[in-house]
Amino acid sequence: MCTLGICNSFGVFATHYINHIYPEESAADIAWIGTMLSGMGGILLSELSQKLMVSVGHQWALRVLALVVFCVSGASGALYRRRLPALQGGVRFVAIARDHRLVAIGVAGFFVNIGYYVPWYYLPTAALKAGQTSQAANSLVVYMNAGSTAGRILVAYATRFVGPINSMVVAHIACSALIPVAMLAARHMASYAALAVTYGMLSASSMSVVPIILADTFGLHATTTAVGIVNSWCAMGVLVGNPSQGAIYQKYDRPRDSFTLISAWGFAGIFLAACSYLYLKVATIRGTTRRLWSVL
Prior knowledge:
By secondary structure, the protein is mainly alpha-helical. Helix content is 81%, strand content 0%. The protein has a single domain (2-285), classed as Growth Hormone, Chain: A (Up-down Bundle). Keywords: Membrane, Transmembrane, Transmembrane helix.
């Protein structure tokens, strides 16, 4: 859990605020830079954290990783320079927060974080139950981070051809289907690895594409404000989702040596996120000549 949070710090800053650093570039062209850094940090720190826990123990491993977060965050803040002129009158926070399009994106972020972490937390356990070694099971986290690194770049560019909202709908539907397949159907390490990489690639859209949608919807000046509001929705999803996952697994699945209900929880969360993005598209094309299958 700590590693996942630390890894995100490598790319979140650049992903969310790089539009203000390079306003002359399109959001789709530059979003992959920050998201790639996040994925690379995930790969490096996942491996580093495992080696630290073996060599110096859990407590010192957490201290070292916390120091890394402090240094990276401090460096990011020190290097940040605004290149986009400030908007006269400021950004209308309340109007943005109440906009039905942002509410749809926020609700999607809430549901994503309800179910997103199921494979990250429980796929290694499922692999152990299926007879895999502890080292092989733990490596699935590295595989997901590797897939996430590639996916964040590819999905950002895919938005040029199919549109960011279309990308989110398709990716989330695919991720919701992958969770029960990976948790319940996989039995061999090759299938676990393939599903982990695929899930990492597709789920990366929740980080790499959201800033693009917000920049296109509310403009560059309001992007950071909109991102902050969406992150609040996501935080509520984490607070609800992670304890609920643990409670479901401990009370229902673990006594039965099963992953059925926890898989259903992950499927439901991400599928509802896909439905939220589908509503966003309907709301966006309403009153225009565009159709549901239009590139958007």
